[in-house]
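Report of the visiting student (M.T.), summer placement. My assignment was to run the structure pipeline on a short list of targets and document each run. The first record concerns Purine nucleoside phosphorylase.
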Amino acid sequence: MNADSFILQNEKLPVIMENMLQKIKETAAFLLSKGFQAPETGVVLGTGLGAFVQKMDIEFTIPYHEIPHFPVATVEFHKGQLLYGNVHGVKVIAMQGRFHYYEGYSMQQITFPIRVMKEMGVKYLLLSNAAGGMNPLYKKGDMVLINDHINMLPENPLRGLNDPGFGNRFVDMCRPYDEAMAQVLIKAAHTVQKELLHGVYVSVQGPNLETRAEYRYLRASGADMVGMSTVPEVIVANHIELRCAAVSVITDECDPDNLTPVNIAEIIEVAGRADDSLSTIFATAIQMLK
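After the run finished, the structure tokens were exported:
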């Protein structure tokens, strides 16, 4: 890149950032005009995890493709729609399907809905995902409260965003998951006689699953479970000071010494078996956070 190209590229950055801030405001205004008024909690539903919508008294549903500036979910088992309604008297926005880096989206597109939620007044963010369990103590169907993460994605959603309108550029990540919200989730699990394990989540690019050597490497790095999502949203939540917590459902046991081909249909089925329990925990926690 020559000097002129470098200068031109950097001159464009303020325009790009200004456009993104404007898009956030436009999308929030659109949703508010459609009745998505005064939401308190945002929920992101991961692969195979959709029963939470049955806990909602749904008032409005909008497909992603009808929302200005929203990406469109391309994963076949992600519904791709935004829901608004009540859970125990609390106004909730739920993403029924999220976006992933492997779909071809930029990190800023993936995390755009989180910024919109904050713009609309959301105070708490609950995230779920399906993950491969590398910790030998984890079994299929276990629910694991994420207490830390390792980011192995090749891009960062904060890259280039140096406008104060987005938040502090150098975000502290010593405790990315809100400890008070974690305690609420633990209490909520106890009320329904369920246990939340604790662990470190590592996010990778995907969409392929890991080799035996990669599972050994990721486990040695300190991770208990592996997936292809969540971390970008959590980084942005911390960037905009939106309190968040996340739970993984273990859908396959990733023992490199006894590894067999993974059946995606089975992963969805395992997630579905844990879905109702996790949805009840989320609904109970939302009531407790009020």
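DSSP finds seven helices and nine strands in the chain. Residues 3-10 have pLDDT under 50 and may be disordered. I thank the supervising group for their guidance throughout the placement.
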